[in-house]
Design a protein that fits this description.
Two copies of one chain form a homodimer. Helices cover about 65% and strands about 0% of the residues of chain A. In chain A, helix 6 packs across helix 7 and helix 7 crosses helix 8. The longest helix of chain A has 24 residues. The termini of chain A are far apart. In chain A, about 40% of the residues are buried. Chains A and B meet through helix 6, helix 7, helix 8 and helix 9 of A and helix 6, helix 7, helix 8 and helix 9 of B. Chain A binds a DNA duplex through helix 3.
DNA sequence: CATGTACGTTACCGATCGGTCACATTGTTG
DNA sequence: CAACAATGTGACCGATCGGTAACGTACATG
């Protein structure tokens, strides 16, 4: 057995076939949609074949769930990085988050929220990805409500939900608006005036 | 040739097979997602077969585009009905629209915005439904901006975009939040305080 | 009765789907 | 060298996909 490999110290240097498949699948799922990407296409794009795929993943559905878990990890890392410079200033944290969303949406490779897109594609209640989607969205709402509470908003639940909806709307507007300057471009300004109104 | 039928006075009483197929397809597309509903399933659910389908529609893609056009017609009819009682009071119209959205989302048969869901499923730039989606969303934005202008908001573009995002977010939150009381429940209150802040 | 329209039925096409089989190859380790 | 784990290869499965061809039938109109 390899010395520097015990199942958990991996993901270091070696380009394991499983990792190549997974990264390729994540990119394809996000750009083209889950139902528009077959297992064959993933394996081919990763420079391997379908059999190697099924040696690494139990099923496509499980891969999809894992894909969304990875997106969620990345999302929260991004979130924490954005709010870190404004520690102990929840209002600045919220503003920074929405400024971050705007510049994220501006990017060329942005196709909206992976979880929301997946929710539109997956309608089978038994799909393992559904729990990931719902958990992710519930956590977003929870964090915005916590930020509203930290800001001492007069109605933290309402303000938290408002921020959640604006956050959802901004990313989802990426796919639905053809123009390059969708309604998300003004969301930071909106949030500021909303905070002005809701904070005493 | 039938007397009471000249191509435009139709859609009256006779249960034409084309109409049955179309209504069935609209319901299935909305409930289960476009890519999860095959032509065979549509025909069978409409009590007919695939051949009758292709005698009425050029292709599935064209049916999908027609489905979204129908959803848009219904949406604007709903919209106009909601704002009609508040004529000459744009602020009340906006408030009525969001109260309407909340009660619409509360309904059991609500699966979010059909256009937004379709946008997540359709990633092929040449799909005939894309123009319908983009046109619908652009019109929503245009109307909210016009309402903001009619309200004499100090920055109609920003306020109009804010309303657009909240409108988008509210309906899209239907599929992404598992709980029965998603963040949309507070959107009417948010809109009121946003209007208070933005109107002089 | 003859004609034409609307519709039902069956079988079929090539392509793709998710998933599995048996077998050959590679590279590392002991 | 022997052994083993990881990977590549190609054929194959049943099911479903969007779409078509050929034919039969019901019915209303002239």
């Amino acid at each position: 057995m390899p010395t520097a490999e015990s199942g958990r110290t991996a993901e270091t240097c070696k380009p394991r076939v499983r990792d190549r498949i997974f990264e390729t699948a994540c990119a394809l799922f996000y750009e083209q949609g889950i139902n528009n990407v077959g297992v064959d296409a993933i394996a081919a794009a990763a420079g391997t074949n379908k059999m190697s795929f099924y040696r690494s993943f139990a099923s496509k559905d499980e891969l999809v769930a894992e894909y969304l878990r990875e997106r969620e990890r990345t999302h929260w890392k991004w979130w924490d990085d954005v709010i870190a410079p404004c520690e102990d200033d929840p209002r600045r944290q919220v503003e920074a988050l929405f400024e971050g969303v705007v510049s994220r949406c501006r990017g060329a490779g942005s196709w909206g929220c992976a979880a929301a897109n997946a929710a539109a594609e997956i309608r089978d209640d038994s799909h393992p990805a559904l729990a990931v989607i719902h958990g992710h969205k519930a956590e977003i709402r929870r964090r915005f409500r916590a930020l509203a509470r930290a800001m001492k908003a007069r109605d933290p639940e309402v303000l938290g939900d408002a921020l959640t909806l604006l956050y959802e709307g901004a990313s989802s507007s990426k796919l639905t608006f053809a123009c390059k300057e969708g309604p998300y471009i003004n969301v930071a300004k909106t949030v500021r005036s909303l905070l002005d109104a809701q904070l005493a």
